[in-house]
Design brief:
Rossmann fold; 2 domains; alpha/beta; 25 helices; 62% helix; disordered C terminus; Amino acid/polyamine transporter I
């Protein structure tokens, strides 16, 4: 076992057999933090985004905050109720993609898939960026290096998920539950203090907000509606991640659908409670919050502008500091858990994206490598691809949540809307054939739920597109179109390849003759071995071919060939420009053209070496030649290996690695224990 293999085992753990897949399935208590951490963590920034949008006209508009929160909560209730129908109807894990594909067609399915892929990437970028911003507010040393820290967090999450779904879920369960306890505990204490009249103000309560340019005058009714729509669309970020459970149903233990539906219900109750409590407390405690880029709109009570380096903490941080004013550990616990869960929220995407990628690969819409499980039974290629794209986004947007959030939720509401429409078609189709009255009533009730969900999500989608398109949502739409076209291109490629590979009557015909040529570089053992292998294949024609670049070397080879009495003719291809590859390629093409139904078999002697640096010193011409001959129809290339002495060293390293004792070898009797070999 080499250094690379040892490092891989330390990082990922021991390999798992395919038969151990059942052992990686999740209980509800582990599945909740795995699949719901994204939706739960959104309460850390969704209220902030609502207050940022409302702050455009000053703090007076905050009176609408709780009403907008209720509207977002209503949409969340409708979406969760709809997805509970989806997990029962489509438990295979395709989620929105499968619903749209089956009921609305392949084009709708690809549209949903492209939307979900973009959403998963943005989930990682937004969550990690928000976590790095919280970390920078707690650790000044990170200030100005948020993007670098965010990239490091993505790398850590990637490594954890490569170990497998169950392992990552177990690792992340404790901090996610700690976050729930921290935020709900803070909100509970805050509400008690509000009822008892002892609720303090937050640190920004004494500040004033200057309206943004263009909002100084009193708003018209239309302008107010547009402002509230913008705040509502930003608050709908709280719904991101809800669809992950429907995509991850196969990861649940049996009964899968029931456990997934229960987890969805728990998610909805917890997320809505957190979000509404935070919005209510922030409003009551006098929160003033603006876009970090518009910090100059904050003023002190005397009208002076706050300094440019003013540290504006998030809503949760300000509420926690005030609520736990007499108990600082409570404040640090809330802030720490919030920062951690924002990072862990990306884990939802690390579980959803690879599964969706594997389904798309199975349907021929994505590279088949995305459908292959790694050593730990996770879809490793999908995890690595997601991490790479998320890192590109984080670096491009410098880990700024406010810039990234404008790209957010467009994709998820596209998938929400098409999924609800697909479910309505699903129930309508089944009602046509169902005759049992009880089942019909259940289906009709489910169709009503999905219809309500469709209305809500379609309205939100329109609002999001109208209010966010010019603010950056157009980038998301462009990314979705790009993914759609890529998937369409991949499917077209696989379809063409399948058609070309289909067996027809002509494939039964045998080649009329085989013309074998053995490439000769000099008179040595590899050449003789290649000639022997070529003779054993019994071709119709066998000849050795040498590319002559100078007369002296060519004459010497011809003399040695005659001296040894070789029974195979040697053909010399003269190359005045010292090219080695082109003359051979042209010669094989000539042979093929002379006999179109024949086959040209090319035997290339190659050295087998034991060190990577030796590979650089040998076989380069052979590699180039094989690369060119692969594009020549009717030409088959065979490598004839000749093991140099150094190759034995590589073999010995492999044997030593195989003999190295591993944990449990003594117990299994694979190696001798301290008292000798195990007796049977």
């Amino acid at each position: 076992m080499g250094v690379g293999d040892v490092s891989k085992r330390i990082l990922l753990g021991r390999k798992l057999r395919s038969t151990q897949l059942g052992g990686t399935l999740l209980r509800k208590r582990v599945a909740l933090p795995v699949f719901a951490s994204d939706a739960l963590s959104s309460v850390a920034y969704a209220p902030d985004e609502i207050f940022i949008m409302l702050s455009l006209v000053g703090a007076s508009s905050y009176v609408w905050s709780w009403k907008i929160g209720l509207a977002v909560a209503a949409v969340m209730v409708a979406v969760i109720a709809s997805y509970r129908q989806t997990v029962h109807a489509y438990p295979s894990g395709g989620g929105d993609y499968e619903v749209a594909k089956v009921n609305l067609g392949k084009t709708a399915g690809m549209t949903v898939a492209s939307a979900l892929l973009v959403d998963y990437v943005l989930t990682v970028a937004v969550s990690i960026s928000a976590g790095s911003q919280y970390a920078a507010s707690a650790l000044p040393v990170l200030s100005g290096h948020e993007a670098t820290f965010a990239v490091a967090l993505v790398v850590v999450l990637t490594a954890a998920n490569l170990r497998g779904v169950r392992e990552s879920g177990t690792i992340f369960a404790v901090p996610t539950y700690a976050f729930m306890v921290a935020v709900l505990g803070m909100c509970g204490l805050g509400l008690v203090r509000m009822i008892t009249g002892t609720l303090p103000d937050v640190e920004s309560a004494s500040l004033r907000i200057v309206p943004a340019p263009g909002y100084e005058k009193q708003l018209t009714t239309l302008a107010l509606v547009f402002l509230l729509a913008r705040a509502f669309s930003s608050g709908c970020a709280a719904l991101t991640g809800v669809e992950a459970i429907s995509n991850g149903v196969p990861a649940f233990r049996r009964p899968k659908s029931k456990n997934a539906a229960t987890t969805l219900l728990m998610l909805g109750l917890i997320a809505i409670s957190m979000m509404m409590s935070i919005i209510l407390l922030a409003r009551q405690m006098g929160l003033k919050y603006v876009d970090p880029h518009d910090i100059d709109r904050l003023r002190y009570a005397d009208g002076t502008q706050v300094p440019s380096d003013y540290d504006q903490h998030g809503a949760i941080a300000q509420i926690a500091r005030a609520v736990f004013s007499d108990f600082s550990p409570g404040f640090y616990f809330v802030v720490t858990m919030t920062g951690i869960v924002l990072v862990l929220a990306a884990n939802t995407a690390f579980n959803g994206f690879p599964v969706l990628g594997s389904i798309l690969a199975k349907d021929g819409l994505a590279p088949r490598a995305l459908g292959q499980r790694g050593d730990r039974l996770a879809y490793s290629n999908g995890i690595l691809f997601l991490a790479f794209v998320a890192i590109v986004l984080i670096v491009a947007f410098d880990a700024e949540v406010t810039r990234l959030i404008q790209l957010y939720i467009v994709g998820v509401f596209v998938s929400f809307t098409l999924s609800q429409l697909g479910m309505i078609r699903h129930w309508t189709r089944h009602l046509e054939s169902e005759i049992d009255s009880t089942e019909r009533r259940k289906m009709q009730r489910s169709r009503v739920i999905n219809t309500v969900g469709l209305v809500f999500t379609a309205i939100v989608l329109v609002v999001v597109l109208v209010t966010k398109f010019l603010s950056g949502a157009w980038i998301t739409v462009l990314a979705m179109v790009s993914f759609f076209l890529i998937m369409k291109g991949i499917r077209g490629h696989y379809t063409r390849v399948e058609e070309e590979l289909a067996i027809d009557d002509e494939d039964k015909l045998l080649p009329t003759r085989v013309h074998a040529i053995v490439l000769v570089s000099k008179m040595h053992k590899p050449t003789l071995r290649a000639l022997a292998f070529a003779k054993a294949a019994r071709p119709n024609v066998l000849e050795a071919v040498y590319v002559g670049t100078d007369d002296h070397t060519t004459d010497e080879l011809l003399k040695q060939w005659d001296k040894r009495g070789m029974d195979v003719p040697l053909k010399v291809l003269h190359s005045p420009y010292r090219e080695l590859v082109r003359p051979i390629v042209e010669y094989t093409v000539e042979i093929r053209q002379a006999n179109p139904r024949g086959v040209v078999a090319v035997y290339i002697p190659e050295y087998v070496v034991g060190h990577w640096w030796e590979q650089i010193l040998h076989n380069q011409t052979a590699l180039r030649l094989k690369g060119r001959l692969l594009f020549s129809p009717g030409v088959m290339v065979s490598s004839v290996p000749f093991q140099l002495r150094s190759s034995a060293a590589a073999l010995e390293r492999e044997k030593r690695g195989a003999r190295r004792a591993r944990a449990g070898d003594v117990r299994r009797g694979a190696v001798d224990g301290p008292k000798g070999p195990r007796q049977s």
